[in-house]
Amino acid sequence: MTVWVLVAFACYMVGMIIIGAANAKKNKNADDYFLGGRNLGGWVAALSAQASDMSGWLLMGLPGAIYAFGANQAWIAIGLFIGTVLNWLFVSGRLRRYTIKAGNAMTIPEYLSNRFRDNKNILKTISSIVIVVFFLVYTASAFKAGGQLFESITKLTYHQALTLGAVVVLIYTFLGGFLAVCTTDFIQGTLMLIGILTVPIVAVMVMGSGHIIPNLVDSGLDVSAKDFLNIFYENGEPIKATSIASQLAWGLGYCGMPHILVRFMAIRDEKELGKSRKIAIVWVLLSLAVACIIGVIGRAYLFPTVLTTVENQNENVFIEMIKKLFMGDLTLPFIGGIFLCGILAAIMSTADSQLLVASSSVAKDLCKGVFFKKLNDRQVLFIARVTVVIVAVLAYLIAWNPDSSIMGLVSDAWAGLGSAFGPAILMSLYWKKTNIAGAAAGMLSGGITVIVWDYIKLIKETVVDATGKEMIVKQTLAESTGIYSLLVGFFISLIFIVVFTLITKPVSQDVIDEFEAVRDNNIE
What we know:
- This protein is mainly alpha-helical.
- Helices cover 74% and strands 4% of the residues.
- The strands form 2 sheets. It has a two-stranded antiparallel sheet. A two-stranded antiparallel ribbon has the order 3-4.
């Protein structure tokens, strides 16, 4: 049966590489490689944006969290849905117009630089560094998910599986650029949705709906089945307001994700944008809702097997459901392989987008925009492709640890990007007085806050070990408070933007005029 699964995987991965090679011929210049000539259609833009957003987190991290900790983890999905809707409604159209008006910007760093008349390239430098740092972690989470997937269905070790997945993503991103990434993301987004809708329905049909609650009870829950299924309960007690706020705060990150925002910039016209908006909102509503359901159904369906949080086994719940369903109960291994490709699709659709955005930041924004302004298009493309390789290798090294968590890696990267870019993007679009000092202060304060909150152990606390002995340990602010760093970083960044804008030199009249032209949809 494993042979048929591997055949399905091989067909899928070869297809992705062929798409990359085919689109390589269409990259006549850097504009094509980084933004596809601003010629994306509605369906491709919508599914590409959402597929690049959700990653292996949607089919592994989120269902795994629900499986292990209960329905209270669904607040993350609710926050993400709200964030997606608001992003498409209030950011997509105005950002697309503004990037055209502001010097036909091809990247987020270039847009910010043009928007604020950054002649000293301060914003380009800051934003490019932020992108590379946090996208390393984000790409590592995708590679990590790929390693877990290949390890679970083959006889490969984790490190061999990690290498295989990373190489495939690297090849078609290296060759095809933005068009290849968006085309493959469209295919991958479709495959993800089909898989996520089909598997839990078939699992319930095979198991019988009457077995869901009894199996949950017998699966070793730490709380009652009623509390496990209640989004307002956590660890058997009413969920804390800080926990709900922290999970909902994931939605704040959307307006600061360069790999999503760049899709808005690349859409062909306003008509296609309207179509994309509707498609994307429906796609994300269905996918997030069913991902949460998979965590619950998976716990019941897989019983008597119980996946623990040791080595993050719980994050493999969807993989194990597919294996049991199509390679056990139904004996349809090739179909199971196709659905497992849906997980691979989720992983690859994010990794490729992040590699491309990181490469554009280094090649176009740093090298050509700051250090070597006389570079021609061919040289920029060469640097971009070299950067894709370097970033992929560094992300691969970060993902080397098999004990790292997909959810943890995504959480850190999402917070960093959302805090650094989210407030700056929003204020650039909706507050005409925002100036370069405010934007720079906001990006720096947001990114630094997340690093300090999540990684620096500042708090000393007394804990009791298994023997009853008291000991003093150091914790991060995130561990001590239970508050998600994005919630803190986002609002600190907003405050810094407002304060520094008000105490420094006002923007010039031409900046005000450009802002009002974009607001009034006058970009000719």
